[in-house]
Amino acid sequence: MKKLMILLAFCSVNAFATPVDINTADARTIADSLSGIGLKKAEAIVAYRSKNGAFKTIGDLTQVSGIGDKTVEKNKADILIIDSTVSDTTKIPSTPEPVAKK
User: Fold this and answer.
1) Do the domain assignments include residue 100?
2) d(CA 3, CA 27)
3) Read out DSSP for 12-56?
């Protein structure tokens, strides 16, 4: 029973983690908040953001070396992009949608 309580305590910390705004967070915050993102990858995210400007979509993270679709998909519930010019902050681009013919 004691082991179960300890396990539940550790699991609940991550289950209620606050999402992180990747356009404003520092590398340590990103690393602490996202699964599969250590300090080196978080520093790469911050460096990419500094060089290229704010991320427009969560899918833009795949442009950062070492960040792939699986990492983005695994963390999309914990990633925020707070920018009034961005209309869809959760869509991960895949294939372009077909254009309707008239």
Assistant:
1) no
2) 33
3) HHHHTPPPEETTT--HHHHHHHSTT--HHHHHHHHHHHHHH-S-S
Give tens-digit pLDDT for 10-34: 454 445 568 999 999 999 999 999 9
Residues facing 20 on adjacent strands: 79
Q: What is the CATH number of the domain that holds 56?
A: 1.10.150.280
Q: Flag whether the pTM goes above 0.85.
A: no
Q: In 3D, which of 100, 82, 102, 101 has the Cα closest to residue 90?
A: 82
Degrees to nearest 5, angle at CA 55 with 50 and 61: 95
